[in-house]
Each structure stands twice: as structure tokens, then as C-alpha cells.
């Protein structure tokens, strides 16, 4: 059933606001699917909603304050005489739990990262006036049966969760504490979901997890991630595969080889380095050196010379000297990221790095960030300009930015807009790139 029609018979409205990462976006989609069974259809208007949910993230600094501020604002939507339900889920809910109910008397629901499956029951209770908080981690057997699968939303590209949680405990990161330890989903369940999505017309699968590269490594009788990619590629109807996110230390040679021997695997990888200094990487507990990271990049480019690499860098980690920072700039010059997500370090309470001394002021960190972003802007521009004149296969996913345009993704993940008829949505079209913008390409369809 088309996405819009799927909600046509529902008589209550759900407004959901999602913070942070792709895992949260996926969880929000799952919430929408689950609550449709209770009669809730999604809306973009909080003032019209019967229920407002915040799906929160605490990976970046200041997350709790942002959520508190938003919750304070939401109070105005609690209408007189009609009990509008307000709930908070995700990482901040996991950290704060019951405390949130105490701080915000008009809040009805708090659900942690392992408790999404309880939400329908919690919402039914809230409709009867009950307030409830659920944040307990559940055991692994139960987790294996509760991996998210999102049904009934017709789209060409879909995320499929293959693992959850993380065992790496990078010193700055809150994820292992709020998402729990790493668990790999059964490959049989993953493949069943991929086959079902292919039957629904999905053509591109993005395999999702906090560290997909370690998929299956701690589970008996399951394939590793490279083998899983081969198995997904065997599913008829699936024409493109991508994955995110990769930890460099778990990037095996077999996985790198997939970029050469699995034609359906797109030439795009997100490989966060976080720093180019060995001293900083050690403090971050990342488990690799700069040289080891660059060696993986070298192998990737050998197998797939046109691979588009994106990354994450944290600027101003405790102890980062000017020399350390310059090593990060030289790593960027060597890797030549197509895009880079860069952040100023801010301590997350409860992590090891929060105990380290910070020598840099926030404004000193921002100066470094600006230098880094300037360099990245130049690298992105140079890489993108090289695409002008090339022909890219575009999976057309919808209308473009301008009237008469359609839009889709090239194999490298870049958005391409070009003139064309919306009847081409769902097709793969050869497009010549005629202009490169910072975040997209303009193209023309080959005759
Ligand atoms: S690999 Fe490190 S940064 Fe990534 S989720 Fe795990 S602990 Fe956090």
C-alpha cells in the first residue's frame, strides 16, 4: 500500500521529532509503524497532534539541555480538557529515566533504547491517564527477536538493521552506555527482511549498525559482514547495497575486497578516522594508528579507485596539540574525503574522556574547526569538479529541487538533479554531470 494511503483510515495524529543519528531515524520509522496499529497517523504539526514524541540522542554535547528546552516548549501543546500525550524516547530517556517524569509533570512516557516494543502498551496506558517510564536493558535472546523491521512504507531505498549496540567504548562516546552491548542480528532474519523489501519494490538496501564491520564476529554459525554482503547481493530485485557505519579497526581485507567483487555494492564508504594523531587516537581508545587507517584507505582505493570516502573528525580532544591537529589536516589531504562531518569536542558525562583535563578553550577549538572546514571545502570542491563531464548511473527517487526536475543518487551517494519526467522515478538512468555544487550535482539525461 502506498505510504500515504497506509494511514488513511487512522483517526489520531502522532507528531514525532527525531534527534541525532540514522539509528534514531530508523527507530522513529518503527514507532510510526507500530503506533499505526493503535490508530495514529503521522503529522508534521505538533499543535494538531494527539501525541507528541521526542526521539532523542545524547552523542553530542548539550543534548540533555536541548531536550529539556524542547520539553518546556511542548507544555503549551498540552491542551485543556483534552489529554494530549507527550513522551520521550532514545538515549536521553535511557540516561535520565524516571527523573524526567519527576522534572516534567506533564510528561506521560519515557522509553529507553531497548524498550520500543513496550510502546504500544505504554501508549494505551497513557490514553487511560497512566504515566510510565521503561528503561531496563533486555537480554540478548529477547533482543534478537525484537530487531526493528519497518513495514509498508513504499520507497526505493531502505535501511535494514544488522546489529545494534557497541563494545568498543571509545573514551569520548556514550553509545555503549545508552544503546547497550553489541549484538548481531540473525542473518536468516536479515535476509528474510531484504527479500520482503525486494518484493515490495525496494531496490537499494543500506545495512545499518553502530559498527557493521564487526557483524557476526562474536556469534557462532553466522557469516561475517563481507559474507553477509554477498548474501544480500544474491537477492533478486536488490540492485544497490550500501552500509554504515564502519569502524576502521574491524575493516577486514575480505570486506575491502567486496568493493571489487560485489557489483551491487556502491562505491561509497563512511570511515570515521576521528583524528590523524596517534597520541590522540590512543587517548580516544580507537584501537588503530593513523598509518593503519591510511593503509585501509590505500587498499580501498586500490580495489575501487573512484570510491567516495566520507569521515568524522573530532576537533580539540583533550591533549590535542597544534602538531596533533596538523597531523589531522595532513590525514585529510591524504585521504581526500568527499565529505567530512567535523565536530568540536565536548565532554559527555559518564565517559572516560570526561575525566581528562581540557587545555583548549571553546573558541580555540572553534578556530581549529574553521581551519579544518576550510580545507575540507577545498577538497570537496576539487573532487566534485572532477565529476563534471562524467556519466553517472542515477537511481531516480523523486521530484527534483526545481519544477520539471527529477532527483536521485549516483553510485557514490551524491544527489543528482536533472530535467526529466516523474514517470522515470524508480528507474536507473545514465546522466551526464554538467555542474557540481557543494552538496549535489546538476546533470542531463543521456539521449
Ligand atoms: S565505535 Fe566508538 S564511537 Fe562508534 S559507537 Fe562504538 S564507542 Fe561510540
Describe the structure.
This protein is of the alpha/beta class and 447 residues long. The protein has 3 domains: 3-136, Cobalamin-binding domain (Rossmann fold); 140-266, Transcription Regulator spoIIAA, CATH 3.30.750.210; 388-445, Beta Barrel (OB fold (Dihydrolipoamide Acetyltransferase, E2P)), CATH 2.40.50. 35% of the residues lie in helices and 22% in strands. It has helices spanning 3-6, 22-36, 63-74, 90-96, 98-103, 119-127, 140-145, 175-179, 187-199, 225-233, 253-261, 278-284, 290-303, 322-335, 362-387, and strands at residues 12-18, 40-42, 51-56, 85-89, 109-111, 132-134, 157-161, 163-164, 183-184, 204-208, 240-244, 268-270, 308-315, 339-344, 391-399, 405-409, 415-419, 428-436, 440-445. Helix 11 (253-261) runs parallel beside helix 13 (290-303) and helix 14 runs parallel beside helix 15. It is globular. Bound molecules: iron/sulfur cluster (SF4).
